């Protein structure tokens, strides 16, 4: 087992939740402290409040990964007898780094919105507000027939050839490859200065941009030739759609029953509901955090009910008049990321052979209570 530093942990984390998925202007990444020290304990938090920092100090944490960035507006000064100044002072004195993953964690596959959709039992889940489409490339490689099966397997295993739920997709044609090895070469087939003709296969497959480097290096490693002949073509096809919120089918029930389900699934005592509690609902949209400005997306996608936090009085009126039911369980339901992210990061660190403890913060940061 390897004792990782902060950079190594964050590199793993960003494979799951890359910074490139964040909305423009979002404040993400390392906010306070440093990553170039060994990390024994990581704490996952929704909000970084002073009592959360005290918890981190008490539990000997070196790195906090938080959903809500503690520094959102630019600081003009750091005065240590204000709460914010004192928080920064405590973090630096105790050498605790804070890394924020905000909208990139909302958008990420398996991130906050997927966790919420799963817990509410959404099926046939789609993205509610598309913000990002992955680009695709066509990769063509020429290989001797004897090695074609092995190369197709390697390409598929590293993630090339995904079309919908099908993996290892490729197309092959046979032909003749010709080449003349130059001086100072060490050819797998043929000899220097002599034109050679070999039965070769042209394998073509599709690769998401983000995997291209990895796929090419695996391909070169698995290929028998000293110099691998391959082409990369840009494609107009769009890859996977990523974005904020999720929408999907639910078992038919009344709005009142669904509100109860939301309370149980998201662990809240109260929800605010807009709409007739007796209407039937079969399709639900969910967006963690403040989803006011996206209610029309929920309506457009055919959702009967939209679950999001911080619903304003006037948004509720607008949605009500358009016949869209709404449930507001509060912004704090994003606390689901504490356990969710802990499990994901534990798995990634385990696969990488990292010896590190990762746990969710136990502090309840919901500022609201109901009397
Ligand atoms: Zn939020």
From TrEMBL:
Which SUPFAM superfamilies does this chain map to?
NIF3 (NGG1p interacting factor 3)-like
* Cited Pfam families: DUF34_NIF3
Keyword annotations for this protein, in alphabetical order, are: Metal-binding
NCBIfam families named among the record's database cross-references: YbgI_SA1388 (TIGR00486)
PANTHER family from the entry? GTP CYCLOHYDROLASE 1 TYPE 2 HOMOLOG, NGG1 INTERACTING FACTOR 3
Q: Into which family does the record put it?
A: Belongs to the GTP cyclohydrolase I type 2/NIF3 family.
**What protein am I looking at?**
GTP cyclohydrolase 1 type 2 homolog
Query: Which species does the entry assign this protein to?
Result: Neobacillus sedimentimangrovi
Tell me the organism's taxonomic lineage.
Answer: Bacteria, Bacillati, Bacillota, Bacilli, Bacillales
